[in-house]
Amino acid sequence: MIFRLRAFALPVALLLVVPAATHQDDPPLRGFTTANAKIQREWEAKFRAIPDPARMREAMRRLSLRPHHVGSPYDKENAEWLRAQFASYGFDATIERFDVLFPTPLTRVLELVAPTRFTAKLEEPALREDPTSDQKSEQLPTYNAYSADGDVTAPLVYVNYGVPADYETLERNGISVKGAIVIARYGGSWRGIKPKVAHEHGAVGALIYSDPRDDGFGAGETYPAGPFRPKDGVQRGSVMDMPTYPGDPLTPDVGASAGAKRLERADAVTVMKIPVLPISYADAQPLLAALSGPLAPAAWRGGLPITYRLGPGAARVHLKLAFDWSLKPLYNVIAKLPGSTNPDEWVIRGNHHDGWVNGAEDPVSGAIAQLEEARAFGELVKQGWRPKRTIIYAMWDGEEPGLLGSTEWVEQHQDELRRKGVFYLNSDTNGRGTFGMEGSHALERFANEVARDIMDPETNKSVGARERASRVVGGNKEARTRSDLRIGALGSGSDFTPFLQHAGVPTLNVGFGGEDDGGIYHSIYDSYYWYTHFSDTSFVYGRALAQAAGTMMMRVADADVLPEEFGNLSETARGYIGELKSLRDNTAKEIEELNLQLAEGAFAMVNDPRRPTVPPKPQPPAPVLNFAPLDNASIALDSASSRFEKAYGALPSANAMAASLAPVNALIRQSDQVLLLPEGLPRRPWYRHSLYAPGYYTGYGVKTMPGVREAIEQKDWKLADAEIVRIAAALTRESDLITRAAALLEQATGAKPVP
């Protein structure tokens, strides 16, 4: 996954008016008594002085020296090297192996056979400037993992980004993709959605290309002169149907260990049903230029010097793909630092170590920060520090093909995680720019407090202050007034998915980015050379990530009371409910307007006025949905959150013993578990969280309160009413848990209960 937030050039005067970094001796510290907060801040200051950019640079050079995809020799060698590094820092480090279905290509053929002939190169050339680009014998070719085998010759149709709305436009133009091969550009949605939707509409194959308007010279100078995708660059990637479930397609909900019961490949629903191939814009141009038919809508036109048309016309394409479907080994590196007083409570940190090719940015830029955090903890242990809770550092394998390593580990250990999991902190790629924070909204205040304590390398203000200023410059009025910056909700695309959305472990995902945009994602050009010339060239943002993530780990590991704050969660849930009501009303209005146009015979022509439009069919009016259960649950959640926060306010001055706080923590760490839906989401029961999930048709993009939201989008009103009741029940469980935790905290701290 690429973690990218757009950063803005920030006037110095603006940075001066946003909140400054919290001083190290500023009490209180959320989750700690005043006395313990002072000790904690002293250890944190020592920790943040240790991460070393020079060591990160060398670690990146080592880890990205050769291609290290799942099953490759260097992937295993890297895992063994990482295990040795953790062990040298004083961690109990092991490698957990799983055997997973990971197809690799045997045959790749793409030809234009009419009206002219053209054979695609399907190859990224080595560059003299980039020494690791010339390792062809070890590189995975350009392909999409979990594509189907196939040998098809068919008409070609251009489908823009290939999302459901694009097919509505094609239908209104009288164009069907049934029996055709579609060509879609990257963007607009996750890549796996494109062939999924194409197959649902009857296509027999799919091509995905990087259009230079979105990912190439339209953005800036191309590599190696600049950071953006060159004409022959290709984005590899998985097209597994991860919105249904991630991980090994053959072992859903079961760890893919040696003796695991496996599905037959034909029964694995997440394997794509049609052949799919990614191509460069150099290979795409002759195909697109051969299309006839209506002009593409203005918004569909990319940056190539051609006339973009929809097709099909005379253009016919031959696509032939075959794969080795054998199981491949993957190697998760698991390193533990036992807790001194609560060893059965796990505070987990993760980043993956596998790459599509050399993977300097994705994932090594995040992995090297994680290594430095662990080294710094080892140094603190030598000075006398020990975490109260057990700290686990994980380097996941197999993230790129479909979150394989993390998902199999969670499925293998899910019973333990439900008993012991306190917190999961994820990162992936890391670059230069502002600090991104996403995750469980009960951790929103905690994330903000840490962001106020970490210094930005370029502005000498806190990373929280810089992020706030960036949002103000971007037009976010709320960023001027709200004390906590809002954190994003998590969809999918990285290893946080199984922890939060399957096991219910409170989760955050963090990283820097936005000022180092580029076009080398999942290509042979994601290299040490590219990163050290165009991204965090001095590795100071690697150090900042280590400082921020390590501080988060220390605070959760040592907190007297776990640092969740439920008022922001309640406010966020209330906002989601408002969005659902607006979505229902807007959908009802769209149906009314459409049916009125049809009744009046005035449905607008689309694109070419010479081509008759095929009008959509009338739709039943949208019924009124009963949102009362959600409204009532929201009120109860707000009341419980207020009571808990009042009790929490007595903690800094309390003399509560750890034993009296243990029952409080036992409840708090279940705060995301009680939000899980026992039966899971409709059509995809692996996903269980009631508030966050990747969209069925967005992939990485999040759908909040997904059961209701997607039912409304699909105009399944009966399902929407049923999902309202289920989400309301989950919020009620959350309110009950918070109320019980508040009562226990009142007893422990002597706080007076809310009347």
Describe it for me?
With 755 residues, this protein is an alpha/beta fold. The chain folds into 3 domains: 12-101 and 328-558, Zn peptidases (Aminopeptidase, 3-Layer(aba) Sandwich), CATH 3.40.630.10; 104-324, Glucose Oxidase, domain 1 (3-Layer(bba) Sandwich); 566-749, Transcription Elongation Factor S-II, Chain A (Up-down Bundle). The protein is 37% helix and 15% strand. The chain is built from 22 helices and 18 strands. The protein has helices at residues 12-17, 34-48, 53-63, 73-88, 164-172, 193-200, 281-289, 360-382, 399-402, 404-412, 414-420, 444-451, 463-473, 478-481, 496-502, 528-534, 540-558, 566-600, 628-648, 658-668, 706-713, 717-749; strands spanning 92-101, 104-114, 118-119, 144-145, 150-158, 181-185, 205-209, 237-238, 276-279, 316-324, 327-337, 342-352, 389-396, 421-426, 433-439, 507-514, 692-694, 702-704. The strands form 4 sheets. A 7-stranded mixed sheet has the order 1-11-13-12-14-16-15, sandwiched between helices. Strands 3-2-10-5-6-7-9 form a 7-stranded mixed sheet. α6 links the parallel β6 (181-185) and β7 (205-209). α10 runs parallel beside α15 (496-502) and α18 packs parallel to α21. The longest helix is centred in the last third of the chain and has 35 residues, at 566-600. It is globular and about 80 Å long. The chain starts with 11 loop residues before the first helix and ends in a 6-residue tail after the last helix. The model is unreliable at 2-24 and 605-610 (pLDDT under 50).
